[in-house]
Amino acid sequence: xxxxxxxxxxxxxxxxxxxxxxxxxxxxxxxxxxxxxxxxxxxxxxxxxxxxxxxxxxxxxxxxxxxxxxxxxxxxxxxxxxxxxxxxxxxxxxxxxxxxxxxxxxxxxxxxxxxxxxxxxxxxxxxxxxxxxxxxxxxxxxxxxxxxxxxxxxxxxxxxxxxxxxxxxxxxxxxxxxxxxxxxxxxxxxxxxxxxxxxxxxxxxxxxxxxxxxxxxxx
Amino acid sequence: xxxxxxxxxxxxxxxxxxxxxxxxxxxxxxxxxxxxxxxxxxxxxxxxxxxxxxxxxxxxxxxxxxxxxxxxxxxxxxxxxxxxxxxxxxxxxxxxxxxxxxxxxxxxxxxxxxxxxxxxxxxxxxxxxxxxxxxxxxxxxxxxxxxxxxxxxxxxxxxxxxxxxxxxxxxxxxxxxxxxxxxxxxxxxxxxxxxxxxxxxxxxxxxxxx
Lengths: 219, 210
Known about the structure:
The complex is a heterodimer. Chain A is mainly α.
């Protein structure tokens, strides 16, 4: 599995791989929204956690459509299936590589981009932490969508339609955990716990559901 | 002769179309089987069933590699080369080696490429290779993984005359070393190969010469 992780990270770092692309897309989204909302700093600051979360969700979805399809196009997916190791583990490894190149960097960059949204200083760390805990759930939900659409040409849009509704709980708890701190509650409250629970749940469900979808696509 | 692959009374239907039924074949260590037949008769489907990538409606595939202590003895190589354009040839084969290989088995990447006279491609990205060069690299992957049973779908497409001769030699050596090669191809792979013809009659039964 180390070999697969190394390979996927290497692929992501090559041209068109999408590692930096997700981060740049995140930056563009975050910098476009103030133009739409206008120069009301108070309003921006209040919306900042939500904006960062929506941008993170869309940036995560960006690279997901190619997660399995690029391998399927070249016939590498067949090689995974004959490899003899569990497909679930392969899916999990690929999802982890995707998170390392998308979710992790954009979580770490969130405080920086938050500055553009006039985010309150005390909300910076909480937003970053919620993204760090919540983006794995987004990646894993998206993995299922990517596995379901693996045999479709131009499945990217379909993934978004399939995945976005299921990402709503993550979005709700992520934003409310970040807002809780602004309201004076402790960070590690109920919302944060739910966010963590969603990530753990998807860690269990995601690989199995994705592997089942990939096997179905063989027929 | 420990290694054995047996397929019994396979039936394959894709959608409405019955491709073949009652297809039985057997191969043991050292056998080279060549699947022939007109396009669309089900050669690729048969190979995918043997590789476990496709389920047969009826029948069973049994692979006995027990004495080799081998849980995944099959290496399937399809029309596509299973190489990603962005990786270099060396990186791709390294990955094949660690994904499909087992400790103490298979050639090193350099040795495998050398066998296919493609060592000069080692550091090039796969994306710049020609179709024939990609095929050579894909065939080198078979040597890197070193699995005993090779299921090959049109393994010599895009290869030049030299490459085809190399590939035929590769398959013969593999069989001589106690492996099994089952290939769907229209090219003569040389002596020692048993031909299995699919689609001889309208109902497409296949006789087993084994």
